[in-house]
Amino acid sequence: MKLQIKSNKYEISAIIEEPKSTPKGLMVFLPGYLDSKDYYSFKEFSKSVAKLGFISARFNPTGTWESGGTIADYSITQYIADIEAVINFVKSTHKNLKNIILIGHSIGGLVGIAYAATHKEVSMIIPIEPPQTKSWSTKTARISQRDLPFEPEKEREYKTPYSYAIDSKKYNAKELVSKVTVPIYLITGEKDKVILPKTVEEIYNNANEPKQFIILKNVGHDFRKHEEETEIVRKKIEEIIKREFK
Predict the structure, then answer these.
(1) Helix 40-51 / helix 227-244 crossing angle, nearest 10 deg
(2) Alpha-carbon distances, residue 102 vs 68, 155, 215 (angstroms)
(3) pLDDT for res 105
(4) CA distance 194 to 25
(5) Are the C-beta atoms of 37 and 46 separated by less than 8 Å?
(6) Is the N end or the C end of the chain the one with fewer CB atoms within 10 Å?
(7) In this predicted structure, what is the pLDDT of residue 246?
(8) Is the CB of residue 60 less than 8 Å from the CB of residue 135?
(9) Predicted local confidence at residue 171, as pLDDT
């Protein structure tokens, strides 16, 4: 079901899919930097968890794609508020909802860690290739291109203002993960040249038990563009969910 959910400032575009049976819980998928909820990988992940009996929620953060606001409203702080809005929306229709799992890629993984550090309703997090926050080399806007989900040969340009970098400085993954008290599975790709496996391992070293550090062979940072790599990640997520929620 595609819908607009009211966040603290604007409405955000989301897709929520329900399992056929009574839900075991909710899984919220968090896109990477300027990525879309409609990219191939997240759609595959959503279908997979629905079969496992979980509600699936994926959304575009404020200021991106079909969501409200402009790129000037895009920030990690706002992203966290958007997560809360999505979770509260689902909880409003499922009063006894248990088991809230956050699964985020890249910046989405960092945001998931930040959210779980301060929101105790989270049951488990699976950050995939999360970065450690770092400063921009210049104090100017950063121009990025993102392929369109349904027309990958075309691109959309984003001009992210320096205010995003200023806000990001408040979120250090190694510090935040030390405040997470629920199970955490940190996943990295052996071929990732954007967020190196050692960067993810450093975050893992600061995490509390129970925790696991997973290196997936033949997986790079842009695994969403490759069906084979996406399937490797999807299977690992499914394996973790089956183990934790039998």
Answers:
(1) 30
(2) 22, 28, 19
(3) 98
(4) 32
(5) no
(6) C
(7) 76
(8) no
(9) 96
Residue matched to tokens 């790599």: 229
Q: Measure the CA–CA gap between 179 and 15, rounded to whole angstroms.
A: 30
Q: Tens digit of pLDDT for each residue in 75-122?
A: 999 999 999 999 999 999 998 898 999 999 999 999 999 999 999 999
Cα(47)–Cα(12) distance, rounded to whole angstroms?
21
The pLDDT of residue 135: 81
Which domains are present in the chain?
2-135+172-244 (3.40.50.1820)
Kindly give the parts of the chain with pLDDT less than 70: none
Phi, psi angles (nearest 5°) of residue 4 = -110, 130
Q: For the chain, how far is it from start to end, CA to CA, in angstroms?
A: 27
DSSP string, 59-76: EPPTTSTTSSS-GGG--H
- Give whole-number Cα distances, 37 to 2, 74, 113, 246, in Å: 11, 15, 19, 27
DSSP 183: -
d(CA 93, CA 23): 12
Q: Is residue 29 within 8 Å of 42, Cβ to Cβ?
A: yes
**pLDDT computed for residue 230 by the predictor:** 98
pTM over 0.90: yes
